[in-house]
Amino acid sequence: xxxxxxxxxxxxxxxxxxxxxxxxxxxxxxxxxxxxxxxxxxxxxxxxxxxxxxxxxxxxxxxxxxxxxxxxxxxxxxxxxxxxxxxxxxxxxxxxxxxxxxxxxxxxxxxxxxxxxxxxxxxxxxxxxxxxxxxxxxxxxxxxxxxxxxxxxxxxxxxxxxxxxxxxxxxxxxxxxxxxxxxxxxxxxxxxxxxxxxxxxxxxxxxxxxxxxxxxxxxxxxxxxxxxxxxxxxxxxxxxxxxxxxxxxxxxxxxxxxxxxxxxxxxxxxxxxxxxxxxxxxxxxxxxxxxxxxxxxxxxxxxxxxxxxxxxxxxxxxxxxxxxxxxxxxxxxxxxxxxxxxxxxxxxxxxxxxxxxxxxxxxxxxxxxxxxxxxxxxxxxxxxxxxxxxxxxxxxxxxxxxxxxxxxxxxxxxxxxxxxxxxxxxxxxxxxxxxxxxxxxxxxxxxxxxxxxxxxxxxxxxxxxxxxxxxxxxxxxxxxxxxxxxxxxxxxxxxxxxxxxxxxxxxxx
Length: 509
Prior knowledge:
With 509 residues, this protein is α+β, with helices and mostly antiparallel strands. 27% of the residues lie in helices and 31% in strands. It has 4 domains: 3-89; 97-242, Trna Endonuclease, Chain: A, domain 1, CATH 3.40.1350; 252-345, no CATH class; 355-506, Trna Endonuclease, Chain: A, domain 1 (3-Layer(aba) Sandwich).
């Protein structure tokens, strides 16, 4: 294949795979939910550049073959003569449907044996992983009941071949299974939930379970080693490795001065562009949340000196702005400006891209419109908070008029995980707040933050709140001051709250 054909194959594949990941030497090295790429076919070579907050890679692509949901590239690393393989996969989980079904069937039998051995005084009701779309249950999780006389525990397990995202989501479906068991079997007392996850995967689930209402149900978390058929109890009170670390707030004034020329060039074409400081050496340009240009400090070719460069294109693809690509940038920016407005054609892909980022940009500029308790500034969006097991981005972090922190979790579309994701981010913010780290890392300058725990606001369009949300809110700890805000479906035109609902343990408005 020619360099031009190779570059086009990569662009076409990634254009239809927003959740793609890069796998090299058996390891996932880049995830395009956060990573970026550029591909060029200049000077008779196809060069693929990949980068993220954790790593950077440049590969010369010499051949490509697409098979099913994987684009297999033959690449050369600079300085190495022998080509190697690099795969771009549409999804993290590359197992065939047959392999998934076999693994889940085997796990169901294994879990039944482990339950019978570990709880000899209880009866294991037939386990199932059958689909039940009405109750939001899918085949990933094995579920059942563990009975002792007139009492029982709901049981839910996930096998070691599933993705980490599926493990993290297990508590959501465990709570729904618990509630379903209580509803269908009123003659017996279903005391609580026993959740089984693979070894060394429980960090997020443990954190979320620690912040449930333990007066509403009993919760137990186990790590199940499928090879050894061994159970290990996980103490949800021990936060251990879930202790997160913040990224220091950047010096915004210095960064804006550093990229003043790039900002002027962008705003000459798109006056409403938002210039967002990512760190001291990077600036993102967004229109209603959609990043369309990116400035960074980079090494000049053939030199040891650094200079600011500007690239453009909808993530994850970027094209360097040069004299040759200047006209392309102007056409793209003007096309974006016409498509990214509330009254534009709703079928346009640029209109539909990243609706949550669009909502986030509106909320960040109109916090008081969302909730009168909130100050319009200071406000931070996409605050990075890392743990030992993942990288989280807190949607919006603000402060109330009483100087109390407010965590705002946003969903533009129906999402069953909204309540527990909100708990996850609230817990991280509370962790750092109790240690005084927001002030230490440069956030909320000039504000004497209240020692009170943060407020948690869950925000979604009123008609797109998942039906299971009410059930999940019932199990949130009363120590978390949590509210669900339903906004008008026409939020792109006007941000307006149409209903508010507090978690059940706190009452409803």
